[in-house]
Amino acid sequence: MKNLIITLVFAIGAALTAQAQNERDFATLFAEAEKTATFEVRTIGPQMLQRMLSLTQVEENETLATMLRQLRSLRVAMASENTEQLFGSANQFAKQNAARYQLHSANDERSIYTRSRKGMIVEVVVLMQQPEKFFIFDLTGKMQPEFIEQMEHWEAIATEKK
């Protein structure tokens, strides 16, 4: 009986893990819904994130290292045509899925949405519109609420250097 209970617990745990791993992110869902758009997609997975943690610049910056440790993947989807329309459609798509994605902040060129589970952020979606490019930055993992503040801080530093 004890072995049966242990086996059931492991089976349920494996099923939940498999379900979580197969859960599709915003970039995937939106690209499937927006069939007329052509996206160039790049994904940085767990192995590459692990390699990034060993870079000297990251090892020397504890804040950046802490942020990277919270990520499971980073997907970037880019489109070069109909950028303004795609930005609007992506925001509308997020609003239509408000039970899943909550708006964190927005302006004319950028929107940030989060998806949380049990008080932990499991996905951060950044939509950006530039004159000739539309970007979806889709970060997944187990992120603390401070993650977005740190992300915005790094974005401000990056834009100052331009």
Question: What would you say this structure looks like, in words?
Answer:
The chain is α+β, with helices and mostly antiparallel strands and 162 residues long. The protein has a single domain, classed as TATA-Binding Protein (2-Layer Sandwich). Helix content is 48%, strand content 30%. It contains seven helices and six strands. The chain has a six-stranded antiparallel β-sheet with strand order 1-2-6-5-4-3. The longest helix has 21 residues, at 2-22. It is globular and about 45 Å long. The termini are far apart.
Q: What order do the strands of the largest sheet run in, or round the barrel if closed?
A: 1-2-6-5-4-3
The whole-angstrom Rg is 18 Å
Q: Mind telling me the CATH class?
A: Alpha Beta
Tally of alpha and pi helices: 7
Shape: globular
Q: Identify low-pLDDT runs.
A: 1-21
Could you give the distance between the termini? 65 Å
Total count of domains? 1
| β-strand amount | 25-35%
What is the CATH topology?
A: TATA-Binding Protein
Biggest β-sheet strands, sense, barrel: 6 strands, antiparallel
Return the average pLDDT rounded to an integer: 83
- Strand-pairing-aware structural class: alpha+beta
Number of strands: 6
- Roughly what percent helix? 40-55%
Q: What pattern of helices and strands is seen along the backbone?
A: HHEHHHEHEEEEH
CATH architect. name: 2-Layer Sandwich
